[in-house]
Design goal:
Distance between the termini: 18 Å
Shape: globular
Structural class: alpha/beta
Radius of gyration: 21 Å
Helix content: 40-55%
Number of strands: 13
Largest sheet: 7 strands, parallel
Length: about 375
């Protein structure tokens, strides 16, 4: 078969670009894949981070062609013509926020009208984490432009069914971020970072916005440190004002037990920090799923999540990770204390090793193939 794939790719940074590359590489084992990326993904005015570009090497090359300007309609039509000229069997998009709906929907509709390809949408979210005016109208536009859907949690499938109750849809586990490599011994990772071999370390990873709940974890840290002696490393770029988080650190006296690196982490830093940490904590207020869980699974490190959205589906409490109630500072502290008091690391690592087998890119690629072949 022949696939066209439109979306973020290197040198643009982040988990979505990495997801797209890993899926495209898996599909390319059996099919022809033409990848079309952005010349401009976000206007600088709308991008909350410092840069949209990677500084390191391409972790999963796919030979993407930069053609799409997210706010340039002329590029949408040009891309649709180029796609149609190659007569793909299916056109694939990774969709996560309504901002991209006009761009993606225009490309999808025009390419399909010209060559009859099926349009497949992989939905990170249907309802965005942070809603804005016109989100519902843009969501309807995008979802009405697709023939089939892939979702990665039951909560996203339920959201999809509100808009497209009868559309073909596949529920597939979010695959692992295999480009981070294989797990390394905790002792080796700590040696590289200069951490003590006997200390207890929690990791908060990923870009920082209110819905991620870092403030809740910071407020839990005095009790966590008192009960377990653990400290916290925050590894991720602030996508909002950092000052309120710094104030919490100062107010509750966390200066000695919290390290905040406020920058985007290059790939080589991600792997070593996960491997060196005892437990990754995701204290989210809301979520559909999180690729961070898949990084932890790949590197065989336990995760503590709150029971929100699809996160609860991704973790088996006490078997592959731990779960806590959302927006419950005391509950987060109790869950972390339980992890250390019951010495759960070995049990959880064994459990998540068994789960990894369900999260291969071949499973995701097979779902894409089924939707591409479906008639109607």
């Amino acid at each position: 078969m022949r696939f066209a794939f439109v979306g973020t790719a290197y040198p643009m940074r982040g988990g979505i670009a990495q997801f797209n590359a890993l899926l495209a590489r898996e599909l390319a084992k059996r099919h022809t894949v033409d990848f079309y990326s952005f010349t401009r993904q976000y206007p600088s005015l709308f991008f909350p981070g410092k840069t949209q570009m990677e500084s390191g090497p391409d972790p999963a090359p796919v030979g993407a062609r930069a053609m799409v300007d997210s706010i340039g309609p002329w590029s949408w039509h040009r891309t649709a013509r180029e796609i149609a000229s190659r007569k793909p069997d299916a056109l694939l998009f990774k969709y996560w926020i309504p901002f991209f709906a006009p761009c993606f929907a225009t490309i999808a509709r025009r390419a399909r009208a010209r060559c009859g390809c099926r349009v497949i949408l992989i939905c990170d979210n249907v309802i965005p984490h942070e809603t804005r005016l016109f989100d519902e109208a843009l969501t309807r536009l995008m979802l009405s432009s697709a023939d089939g859907f892939i979702v990665m949690t039951k909560s996203v499938l339920a959201d999809l069914r509100r808009f497209r109750p009868d559309a073909p849809a596949e529920l597939v586990h979010h695959p692992l971020y295999t480009h981070f490599g294989e797990p390394m011994p905790k002792e080796e990772a700590r040696r590289r970072l200069g951490w003590r071999p006997d200390e207890r370390v929690l990791l908060f990873f990923g870009y920082i916005r209110r819905y991620k709940g870092l403030d809740l974890l910071l407020r839990a840290m005095p009790e966590i440190h008192r009960a377990t002696g653990a400290r916290l490393v925050v590894l991720g770029e602030f996508y909002e004002d950092r000052a309120p988080y710094d104030r919490i650190v100062e107010e509750v006296g966390l200066g000695e037990i919290v390290t905040m690196r406020g920058d985007y982490a290059p790939n080589e830093d991600v792997a070593v920090h996960f491997n060196a940490s005892d437990l990754t904590v995701l204290p989210y207020r809301s979520a559909t799923q999180s690729g961070i869980v898949q990084v932890a699974y790949q590197l065989e490190r336990p995760v503590l999540c709150t029971r929100v959205g699809g996160l609860e589906e991704m973790i088996q409490d006490g078997a592959t990770g731990l779960l806590a109630a959302p927006e419950d500072v005391a509950g987060i502290a109790r869950a972390v204390s339980r992890y250390f008091e019951e010495n759960l690391e070995g049990r959880l690592v064994e459990g998540l090793r068994l789960e990894k087998a369900k999260m291969g890119w071949d499973v995701m690629a097979a779902a894409v193939e089924r939707l591409a072949k479906e008639k109607g």
